[in-house]
Amino acid sequence: MREEEEEEEEEEEEEEEEEEEEEEDEEAEEEEEEEEEEEEEEEEEEEEEEEEEEEEEEEDEEEEEEEEEEEEEEEEEEE
Questions:
Q1: pLDDT in tens, 43-62
Q2: Has UniProt tagged this entry with the keyword Coiled coil (predicted)?
Q3: Which of 15, 25, 28, 55 would suit a FRET pair with 72, their CA atoms being 20 to 30 Å apart?
Q4: How far apart are CA 72 and CA 64, in angstroms?
């Protein structure tokens, strides 16, 4: 009778340990997923920043071109 009880207790302990391990695994997986999501968000932000910078550069270039054209026109008028 005692042996049976001991065996049952051991089995219960093993089951509990297994459950704990499973929970830990799940938590680790969730953490990994969160990290991946964060990385993706960061990448997206970086891409957006790059796009904005490119747009700004293009605008600057356009402004420069316009200024040059205006200067040329002024020079032509002076002549």
A1: 999 999 999 999 999 999 99
A2: yes
A3: 55
A4: 12
Interatomic CA distance for residues 21 and 24, integer angstroms: 5
Burial category of 72 from C-beta neighbours within 10 Å (exposed 0-12, middle 13-18, buried 19 and up): exposed
Cα 75 from Cα 69, distance rounded (Å): 10
pLDDT, tens only, 23-47: 999 999 999 999 999 999 999 999 9
Give ∠ CA 34-35-41 in degrees, rounded to 5: 90
Residues, the chain: 79
Spatial distance between the Cα atoms of 66 and 57, rounded to a whole number of angstroms: 14
Q: What CA–CA distances, in Å, run from 30 to 33, 34, 39, 43, 62? A: 5, 6, 14, 20, 48
